[in-house]
Amino acid sequence: MALQPSDLVHEVEIVWLEEPCHDYVRQALDKQPTRKGKPRYARDGRLIGYANLSPEAQAAFGSGLFTRRTFFLLPHDRSNEPHGEYEVGAPLEAVDPATIEPGTPGRKTPRSQNSVAITPAGSTNTGM
Q1: Most buried pick, 20, 62, 90, 103, via CB within 10 A?
Q2: Compositional bias (Polar residues) at which positions (predicted)?
């Protein structure tokens, strides 16, 4: 399921740990014990950036955790393997880092897809 602006309403800042010069980064919502600061990272690959939340953000009832957006790359992503699996195209959760702003889901672009055009799912475009 795609991220919605309502998922990101309490974001106030995007922090980049690396320059966001990659064609794409993966974005995810992770449960974290804090509103701000570098979050825990338990995936393969590396954390590229994260969102900080406003003081008004509420922790989830029961768990006490905050939902925060993280940006990361995995070992087999294009920036590590330019001629690999994602030479053209990108993972489902991948977005162009140039489109990332607090409170706004990142978007796919021709740059993130390494292609000239993006064809929406379910499109009937046959190239004719």
Answers
A1: 90
A2: 111-128
Beta strands in 1-80 (DSSP E): 11-16, 25-32, 46-53, 66-73
Residue 39 burial (CB < 10 Å; 0-12/13-18/19+)?
A: buried
Assess contact for 25 and 71: CB atoms under 8 A: yes
**pTM for the complete prediction?**
0.86
* DSSP three-state, residue 62: coil
Entry field: residues in the chain:
128
Residue for token digits 């990108």?
90
Segment 109-125, tens digit of pLDDT? 999 999 865 556 665 55
The domain spans of the chain are: 10-113
Other beta carbons less than 10 A from residue 14's beta carbon: 19
Distance CA(59)–CA(62), nearest Å, equals 9
**Helix/strand/coil for 111:** helix
Backbone torsions φ then ψ of 6, nearest 5 degrees: -65, -25
**pLDDT for 74-84, tens place per residue?**
999 998 898 99
